[in-house]
């Protein structure tokens, strides 16, 4: 069973909720997912983080992680903003990606941040930076369909 199928099953076993947080986890074929769910209903969900770990990438060199980041940038066209690499840290073996351009309005700037790390970890969060304040994590709202596509893309591109 694929990571997407296991995640879909784990979602189906949760009752709709709002106002609290629940953890969702699943694993399949050398891949694991951890999600901090903030809201769940029949059509959509909100999360504060999604982390997918792939055993196959546990010792990946920075060049492989950069290729993986490029592939993700091409695939994740269905999020609110396109994502592209903004920094490559060869010492820590991390590729940092962000929305490019971020979403801006009178209330500030919102963007996705995706980290591709040695150890096989892909993590996604949404941030907001209001004028004069430090950035803070905010919920990312997506349909269940988009969420499952994201899980499939994370698991697939990391092979």
| Coarse morphology | globular
- Rg result: 15 Å
Cα distance spanning the termini: 15 Å
Number of helices: 3
Biggest sheet, in brief?
10 strands, antiparallel
**Structural class, from helix and strand content?**
alpha+beta
SSE string: HEEEHEEEEEEEH
Q: What is the mean pLDDT?
A: 93
User: Which spans of ≥5 residues are poorly predicted at pLDDT below 50?
Assistant: none
Give helix % range: 10-25%
Strand segment tally = 10
Which range does the strand content fall in? Answer: over 45%
Commentary on this structure:
By secondary structure, this protein is α+β, with helices and mostly antiparallel strands. It is built from three helices and ten strands; from the N terminus they run αβββαβββββββα. Strands 1, 2, 3, 4, 5, 6, 7, 8, 9 and 10 form a ten-stranded antiparallel sheet that branches. α1 packs antiparallel against α3. The mean pLDDT is 93.
Lay out the secondary structure.
Blueprint: H1 3-12, E1 17-28, E2 31-40, E3 44-54, H2 62-75, E4 83-89, E5 94-99, E6 103-105, E7 108-117, E8 121-129, E9 136-138, E10 140-143, H3 144-157
Antiparallel strand pairs: 1-2, 2-3, 3-8, 3-10, 4-5, 5-7, 6-7, 7-8, 8-9
Helix pairs in contact: 1-3
Short summary:
Helix content is 24%, strand content 47%. With 159 residues, it is an alpha+beta fold. The longest helix is centred in the middle third of the chain and has 14 residues, at 62-75.
